[in-house]
């Protein structure tokens, strides 16, 4: 078994963990990034490509996303890589009067926050998205929405982290921490011990399990999301498309008397450079089970084709399902854990991990170094904030009990 020494161990090599590792290494820290599988094998490798601002709730979520979106403008140059980033704009299709009323209020608050967004009638919406169904009443449109290839982004972040000095350990599962008093002394993994003073829990949907293994309360649950993938098609979608049902259901209590759609279904539609359509999606609580039911797949397809009828003639070649890290209040947890000195949680982004990766890397770097190079977001993102629900009993993703935290008292 190997023994290694570093300043920081980052758990999780998705876009969040990779961005954090890169930024910390740039700040001069010795970083080891571990992943139970491989970079991009989790949520970052099973998501769509949209960077939406107009789906974010006004207030901290909106300002956080806006700051992160601004960082994307220079990110490819910083990474010295093509991440297929495009400021292509985005739309939210409106089907009902209730959805229109919700979006009017939502858009008003977004404009007040400085987001460029307009409300289109049905004809104007179909001029921008010709495949929208005749019954669609209108849409909101924002040129500030963008897109990026999440796989290319994850790979570029890992490569940049390695160039900055990060040691990446694949197929290396976090098991426990060893403490001397209240301080972290080392991390125990499936491939050996790593001596360190700081640990960043960026394990996404597994952050709750990882936290339990360290004795840290981490109210994050896995929420299953499924996306249908088509064979390549001629150009069908301009930018990225959501529906108002998706946006409304994302924000609890958004519609008076409204209920969560079955399986959390709401349209998300985008098209890759190769012509493949990414058709989503669902939001379900199913523990760590990644197997979607045929009923979910059928509901995604029928809902999407109702809004974009041309999808009825598209051949679906597969579906991809990932687990999203859910907190319950629409914000990630980024902050120090009071239970263990040196433990930082940076997870819980749910479906906004791609959009918020740049700002998360900077916020964690600032938290570690004591600098303040971006907005005053951290007080709103602590793991003990009042808006977080109590975590359910953790359900381990594999058989066997988690190792206990080890202590040295001398």
From TrEMBL:
<dbReference type="Pfam" id="PF01266">
    <property type="entry name" value="DAO"/>
</dbReference>
<dbReference type="InterPro" id="IPR006076">
    <property type="entry name" value="FAD-dep_OxRdtase"/>
</dbReference>
<feature type="domain" description="FAD dependent oxidoreductase">
    <location>
        <begin position="7"/>
        <end position="367"/>
    </location>
</feature>
<dbReference type="GO" id="GO:0016491">
    <property type="term" value="F:oxidoreductase activity"/>
</dbReference>
<feature type="region of interest" description="Disordered">
    <location>
        <begin position="374"/>
        <end position="410"/>
    </location>
</feature>
<keyword id="KW-0560">Oxidoreductase</keyword>
<dbReference type="InterPro" id="IPR036188">
    <property type="entry name" value="FAD/NAD-bd_sf"/>
</dbReference>
<dbReference type="GO" id="GO:0005737">
    <property type="term" value="C:cytoplasm"/>
</dbReference>
<protein>
    <submittedName>
        <fullName>FAD-binding oxidoreductase</fullName>
    </submittedName>
</protein>
């Amino acid at each position: 078994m190997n023994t290694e020494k570093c300043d920081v161990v980052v758990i999780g090599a998705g876009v969040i963990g990779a961005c954090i590792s890169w930024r910390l290494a740039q700040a001069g820290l010795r970083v080891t990034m571990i992943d139970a599988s491989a970079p991009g094998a989790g949520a970052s490798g099973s998501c769509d490509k949209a960077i939406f601002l107009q789906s974010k709730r006004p207030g901290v979520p909106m300002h956080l996303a806006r700051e992160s979106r601004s960082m994307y403008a220079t990110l490819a140059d910083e990474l010295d890589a093509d991440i297929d980033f495009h400021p292509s704009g985005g739309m939210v299709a409106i089907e009902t009067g209730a959805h229109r009323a919700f979006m009017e209020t939502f858009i008003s608050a977004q404009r007040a926050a400085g987001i460029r967004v307009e409300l289109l009638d049905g004809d104007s919406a179909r001029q921008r998205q010709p495949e929208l169904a005749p019954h669609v009443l209108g849409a909101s449109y924002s040129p500030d929405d963008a897109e990026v290839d999440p796989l290319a982004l994850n790979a570029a972040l890992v490569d940049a982290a390695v160039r900055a000095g990060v040691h990446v350990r694949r197929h290396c599962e976090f098991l426990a921490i060893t403490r001397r008093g209240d301080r972290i002394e080392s991390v125990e993994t499936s491939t050996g011990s790593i001596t360190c003073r700081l640990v960043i829990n960026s394990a996404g949907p597994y952050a709750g399990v990882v936290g339990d293994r360290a004795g840290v309360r981490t109210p994050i649950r896995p929420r299953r999301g499924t996306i249908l993938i088509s064979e390549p098609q001629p150009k069908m979608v301009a930018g990225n498309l959501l529906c108002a049902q998706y946006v409304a259901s994302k924000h609890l209590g958004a519609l008076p008397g409204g209920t969560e759609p079955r399986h959390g279904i709401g349209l998300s539609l985008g098209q890759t450079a190769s012509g493949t359509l990414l058709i989503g999606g669902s939001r379900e609580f199913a523990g760590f089970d990644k197997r979607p039911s045929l009923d979910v797949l059928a509901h995604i397809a029928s809902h999407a084709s109702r809004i974009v009828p041309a999808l009825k003639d598209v051949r679906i070649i597969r579906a991809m399902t990932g687990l999203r890290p859910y907190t319950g209040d629409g914000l990630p947890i980024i902050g120090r854990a009071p239970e263990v000195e040196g433990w930082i949680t940076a997870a819980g982004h749910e479906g906004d991990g791609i959009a918020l990766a740049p700002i998360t890397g900077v916020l964690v770097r600032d938290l570690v170094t004591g600098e303040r190079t971006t907005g005053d977001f951290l007080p709103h993102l602590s793991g003990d904030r009042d808006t977080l629900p109590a975590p359910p009993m953790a359900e381990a993703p594999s058989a066997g009990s988690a190792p206990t935290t080890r202590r040295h008292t001398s």
